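Consider the following assembly input.
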Amino acid sequence: MTVKYTKDHEWVRVDGDVATIGISNFAQGQLGDVVFVELPEAGRVLEQGKEAAVVESVKAASDVYCPVSGTVTEANQALVDDPSLANSAPETDGWFFKVTLSDPSQLDALMDEAAYAAFVEESH
Amino acid sequence: MSMNSQGRPSAIPVAASTDAVTGTITGNRGLQIEEPLIFEQDAPGRCGVDLPEIPTVATRLGAVKPRATVGLPGLAEPQVVRHYTRLSQKNYAIDSGLYPLGSCTMKHNPRLNEKMARLPGFADVHPLQPVSTVQGALELMDALAHWLKTLTGMAAVTLAPAAGAHGEMCGIMAIRAAHEAKGDSGRTKILVPESAHGTNPATAAACGYAVESIPATADGRVDLAALKAKLGPDVAGLMLTNPNTCGLFERDIIAIADAVHAAGGYFYCDGANFNAIVGRVRPADLGVAVMHINLHTTFSTPHGGGGPGSGPVVFSEALAPYVPVPYVTHGANGFALVEEAGDGPAFGRMKAFHGQMGMFTRALSYMLSHGADGLWQASGDAVLNANYVMAKLEDVMTASFDGPCMHECLFDDRFLKGTGVTTLDMAKALIDEGFHPMTMYFPLVVHGALLIEPTETESKASLDQFIGALRALAERAKGGDVAYFQAAPRLTPRRRLDETAAARKPILRWTPPAGADAVAAE
Amino acid sequence: MRYLPLTEADRQSMLAATRAASVNDLFRDVPEAARLSGPIGGLPNHMGELEVERLMGAMAAKNIAAGSVPSFLGAGAYRHHVPATVDHMVQRGEFLTAYTPYQPEVSQGTLQVLFEFQTQVSLLTGMDVANASMYDGATACAEAVIMANRVTRRKKALLSGGLHPHYRDTTTTDARFIGFDAVALPADPTGVEDLAAQIDNTTSCVVVQNPSVFGHVRDYSDLAKVCQAKGALLIVVVTEALSLGLLTPPGDMGADIVAAEGQSFGNALNFGGPYVGLFAVKDKYVRQMPGRLCGETVDADGRRGFVLTLSTREQHIRREKATSNICTNAGLCALAFSIHVSLLGEAGITHLAQLNHAKAVQMADKLAAVPGVEVVNGSFFNEFTVKLPKPAAGVVEALAARRILGGVPVSRLYPGEMDDLLLVAVTETNTESDMDAFATALAEVLS
């Protein structure tokens, strides 16, 4: 399983043709305490780079963009019930939603873990 | 994901909870008296008013059943008086002290204005009385309109909008109506500088426009070249606050206005900061096409803990035909009230009735009290006070831009770098010194903003005390006493509140304790 | 100038600190052509309190104060007796001169008031949750429609013919500029319109007013069921909040959103404003709500406290994605509302509502006895419509000449239509002799 990152601080983990998507540990640190998430419903067709979810802290609301095009198969109900998972386990239990990839080649342009770490280091 | 840079700490720092204040038996602390919710003081049947008996009649409620209960508590008058008195004592107010909220213009609220608004001839008049019985009310509206037009140099005014943001809606609607009347449907964008109030982009978006951001220059002003590059047949207008939210006057304002109008757009000026220039500079002379005026800032109608406001809008000759109803005209039999838009280009109403009359009476009292000479002095003193604060703090705090500033001065958190103390901590520590904090984390164009607007109604002694407190706090922060700041405020009715918990599990109303129904039913 | 504390000596020493040559020099960033050289022309100079009082008093004296004569006007603004306590408490400087409670540690007074206000509005409307107020009932109505469009992702609102025309127009103004359809049904003076038949799968919401602008009261429970079946929201508008003390509340009828005018409690007529908009919804729509919300939490010492919450919906954070651009609300008017409701309490509010209804029934009977006058309503709360043998506007003018404010001609709200109809409101402030004087004068004017 490979994990890839976007410049907008989303991560994608691919398992077969299913991609799991969330926000990075760096992103949750910037947001502060997450208090609410709004996730896409199953069946929704998402386009790469378009708004897919909303994540809110007390003083900030941010859009989460879909890193890859695909159809939503599942949203993380546990995260809806306990948004603090986005802070405590951003890249594991705090995942946002899953999609079936419509164009796996889109993954090629995303950053791997080392490249993302360098990107964060450089830009912040 | 998009990152919003307004994030600030929302949970309680660990240091705060380790610094508990010694308790008392009652929870009261001298003059700080604990007060339960009104719902927790209920005795069934008790009532704070005495009412006459109900005449016996056959009800005419048709198919609607009378309701069984409402669920409200019963209190006697003395309890109600004590409840609200105690609650009031948990508030900071202009009456208590300096309230330096930048871009909010928290100035003294003269009590004469309250007295005038309560004259029965104004307060006890129904909005739909025959026009012949409300000539004085219409005269007052006409007089206020005259003052606003004279002070701005503009051609027309509507008094209808209920607040500043409502005035913004009105102004953007008028711009849209003007473009539509010309058959120009290609204008889909409104330009808004990065430093704008949040209401500006929210208003433009609510009116169906795409919002495009204009960058600022290094000196805190609109980048004229960048603006010009964005102007074109797709731009409906520009929304710009002047003086801007960095407390600076836009030096290129006339060039900006000319460029926007040359490109076929309209220049909307957000008048939130009009207090800096009122009586000294007429917005019409700056090329403004439309501008709202907050009567509750510049003209001192009280903020009341968040309203009511009043947001009249002034229009240039070009936009005057689009002024919404209602408005006052001079007729053969005195003043008349135009209440219907009819077939003309004017658009329809924005709220019920004729505007915030209670605010008009207060604002006109304020204007009459000041007069032309008093307003000249007031805006001068407002600007002098802000520049004085800036001059006295710039060696220990970091001013974001060079002066002179207008009615407010902007600092950022560079002076706190490496100290572990945040802008929020500074604000909370200032509370313990007896001051309301400045505006924090706004505008967004600088990091950890502290925006200070003292207003003209502060004395030099009051400013000096405030300056002394801030200087001492800045030194203390640099001395590394982080724990002190994180535990602040210590002396308030409540200490830092857990906003994270409030947002994660919202409790937005009182509910009867579990089992209360069962007990009542027995 | 009595409001300006700086002395000339202060100004000179402060100027020295700023290193500016003069106050005018501080304005040097203003283009020279736009700088006035001295106080603006065409306006008077400053005045003392006494002079201002004379000028303002002279204007006030040209109006007929509703309380100085028998007065029967309603149509969205009602003259009720406001207990002395209310106005005294709202003038406490700590309430009057505070800003929006953005710093909760020094704003617990305002915040607790808002929390109590939200609870009172929830209880009165029978809804789950209410916000901290809107500008007025009409803007609350328009915001409710915009919210329903957002919730349903539909764009067609159906506005009842019983909706106050000012509320209708405020909503259609927004519809034009924001871009949605607001279909306003014809005026319904007899209270018989059938809305259910007009709802389809593209309807975002149905807006009804109860009592209607013509005074009719109806049970909308069945309409709520139709709305639910079609995926539309039911918005119930209330312009006379006191009716909530007597009638089945909108929440119990199945309303999704209640948008109401709260002026009847604590707020004077004020020639139409400022008033206080009430906005209440079902729990599931909380995050779609416009306006401020106050919530309960704890402080660093574990004590109960209050904060503004869920503010990510609002303009200062979401900016162009906000649920509304509303910023200032009606804080002080909400406080007045809350104090009045607290004084009345459960016993007072139901009593006052019944008293209003009983007096209105008496008035209707007195007017029905006037030759040529017909009471249109079969049902009403404290306001009803009468049909006159002459145009109502002229009758009202003639009554005003006799120093009686005899209601609102329907044609004032619907220009050129229904000119023989008159709206008559009756409250606890109307005495038996007021009512008799009105009936007698009306008989004279009509004869």
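Chain C has a mean pLDDT of 96. Ask yourself how this observation constrains the way the partners meet.
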